[in-house]
Every structure is written in structure tokens, then in C-alpha cells.
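2024-03-11 09:14:02 DEBUG pipeline.ingest accepted 1 chain
2024-03-11 09:14:02 DEBUG pipeline.ingest length=257
2024-03-11 09:14:03 DEBUG pipeline.predict start
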Amino acid sequence: MTGVKMMKVNDENLYSINVKSAIYFSLKKLVFQNPLVYLYARKLFRPDGLVTKTTKLVIEGYPRSANSYVEAAFRLTNGDDADFCHHIHNASIAWDADKKGVPCIVLIREPMKAVISYQNYLGGAANPNALLKEWVIYYKFIKDKCPNAIVVGFDRAINDFNSVVDQLNKKHGSNFPYLDSGQYSSADVFAKVDELSRIRGSVRKTEPYSPFAGKNANDAYKDKLQLSSSEIRQKVDTLLLAQADELYAIFNKSEVV
């Protein structure tokens, strides 16, 4: 992949929601640029999220980029006890997998769609420019520091999962099973997503985008995203968005999306 020119973006008010969010995003920027700092801190405080000798697969990606769907699909075909590292949402984990030779999938979604969905998930509690800048930092790190990661687009992950498995197996000589259409359907994957979300306490019954939530819930979720989209697009820094779109286009040209 060719390099992307990082345009200068005005940071004024970028992290201005409150002091807590300012500290949070500043620290995230620090650890993205210094993976050993993050990995050391993670080992001290939350070692459960690290890549170990028994880790079979790392599933990374910016939040709201089909992370849950891909994990659920792999769990259906590999079993609930398979040692996967997932939902950490920190590029340092992909870097660590790269260094240790562990198969790693990095999911990517169109930047504005990812930010709109994530901001909605956070209940509107974060500045969208901060989220977008985090997206840029994340994927620039992946592009520059994680050459062995398989970057997979949101739509491909959901609509052509077996092609992802095929690419993973060919690259790493692994034998991850395919999602047999005669045994499992997309609905089965979403059912697994809902099951895992209930176990982890993130939902009571179903995810709002799940087909099992029902048409009314699905429509309400889509309407909420549409409303959020209009509001967020008015707030986003145009230079920052151009930078994100340029970076996304680089991955797009590599036919991962």
C-alpha cells in the first residue's frame, strides 16, 4: 500500500466534550503510537485481552465494524471454547499478533458510517471529530505497522464470510472451517451475536440491528442512525473527513472492502 499524506487538522475543541473524554482520547492516541506502552499496561490491569501462545485468531477493528458478527461466525464453526482475541478495539493487539505470527483479521467500515454508529452506541456522549480522528489513527497504524493483518471490509465480512476464511487459511496455512450454508445461515450468525451479547450483558435480549429484534425495533434503530447522521455530518471537520476517506480508499483499492 502506498503512503497517505496526513493533513493538518485543527485540534481546537476536538476533545472538548468534557475533561474525562479529553483524557480518554489523548491516552488512546498515545497508546496507538506506542503499542508496547498499551501492551504493558494491559498485561498489568487486564491480561485477559492479550495475544498468548494459545490464541488461535485475533479479530480486531474499530468499533461498529462487524466485529461481533465475525466473532459469532467463527464461534459457530469453531466452538465457543476456541481461543480468540476479540473486541479489544486497539491496533496494538493487531501489531502484537503480527509480531507473534498469530492470524489476524482487521475489520474496516466506511469512516462516517462507523463513527455515526459508534457515536449512537455511546449515546451521543463523544465528540464525532474525536471519534473520527481515532478512526484515522487506528487505520494509519494498521497500514504502517501491521503488514500481515488481513483487512476485511464491513460488507464483505457479512455477505461473503467464507471468502474471508479462505483468504485467512491460504495466508497462514490454517484450517478454519467454512460457514456451511447447509448448516448455518446469516440468521444463525445473528442469533449467535445476540446470545454472546446477552452473556456479556450488553443487551437484555437482542441487538437493535438483529433480525430477531423485530421490524419495529430495526426501523427505530435505522431512524435513529439517520437522525444522528444528519447532526454528525454538520459537526465533522472536513479536512479530517477527507483524510479518513483517503485512508479508506487505500484499503478499498487493495480489494479488501
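2024-03-11 09:14:41 DEBUG pipeline.report Strands lie at 57-61, 84-86, 104-108, 150-153.
2024-03-11 09:14:41 DEBUG pipeline.predict end
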